[in-house]
Amino acid sequence: MRPVTNASMHNSSEEESELRRGPWTLEEDTLLIHYITCHGEGRWNLLAKCAGLKRTGKSCRLRWLNYLKPDIKRGNLTPQEQILILELHSKWGNRWSKIAQHLPGRTDNEIKNYWRTRVQKQARQLKIDSNSKKFLEALRHFWMPRLLEKMEQNSPSSSESFTSASTAEVNNPAPFAELTSEPSKFLANCNDFLNENSSLSICSSDSVRMSQFPGNSAHPSSPIPNDCYYVDSTSFEMEGFNQPNMSAGCHVAELDWSNDYVAENLWNMDDLWQFSSK
DNA sequence: AAGAGGTGCAACCGCCGCGTC
DNA sequence: TGACGCGGCGGTTGCACCTCT
Question: Where is this region: Disordered (predicted)?
């Protein structure tokens, strides 16, 4: 663990040399929470001084936003959240804070860590650039259907409402009806997204049609047709996943979907998606 | 049981844009 | 108008913990 003070650094002023760094203590957390509860957030440097914290304003802000804020969600990302991250990242790239705005309770830091530790790791193992179109296609054709399948499996009504796609079927998935275990949350997330993207349109009172939901707009040359997603309070269909079966000749440029190595790896990555609880 | 290597994540760093003086 | 301070953001680091051998 790093020393508590940065006295060894090249700060000239005595005050600066007393600044603490490294992990926050319970006492510091308490001070910060108490101060913000009484006075609100913002003006972080002043806040740090007034609260009696020997921390930089930046450090206080980071600690509050990423850890102490009451509405922070802890624990693994849900499949719904993971799908949103993948889709939003395909549209916006590493705009973590923007992506985080669409995942209530999740921080940009958490999403960034998720992407770097899980998604990029798999991209490396597959020897695919995580920013490449190839990787995006992998996400859309293999991993997202897998996530949707997982969402369905987690759904309490799944056994009645949905004939789960087998692994072999996921490349040409049946309509994803009643998929989500947390439909209201997922809908809320999608609607938040829709509200900020005028290119997306509501197509009925009961269902939400998301034309060009993010992926392809970022990659206009993608051979995938503009995806059309339906989000419904009782049914949830992602037409974008109704792609031609790979074995039937999926026209995906650059990536050979029949490549056993790629397929094997893609289907052995449940760990990536946090399917199993820790 | 213990050491090595891998993983996850909290925290820090550096840069940039904006507001103020 | 340029210097300065601050907040916000994305990239990176370092360490505790976990898994493997």
Answer: 1-21
What pLDDT digit, counting tens, does each position of A67-77 carry?
A: 998 888 888 88
Chain B positions with an atom below 7 A of a protein C-beta are 7-14
Q: Is the CB of A63 under 7 A from strand B?
A: yes
Query: Quick check: A109 CB within 7 A of strand B?
Result: yes
Mean pLDDT of chain A: 59
Give the domain CATH number at A29. Answer: 1.10.10.60
- Average pLDDT estimate for A258-262: 48
A21 CB and strand B closer than 7 A: yes
d(CA A59, CA A79): 31
Tell me which residue range forms the domain holding A20. 14-68
Domain-embedded: residue A97:
yes
pLDDT digits (tens, 9 = 90+) for A156-165: 543 333 223 3
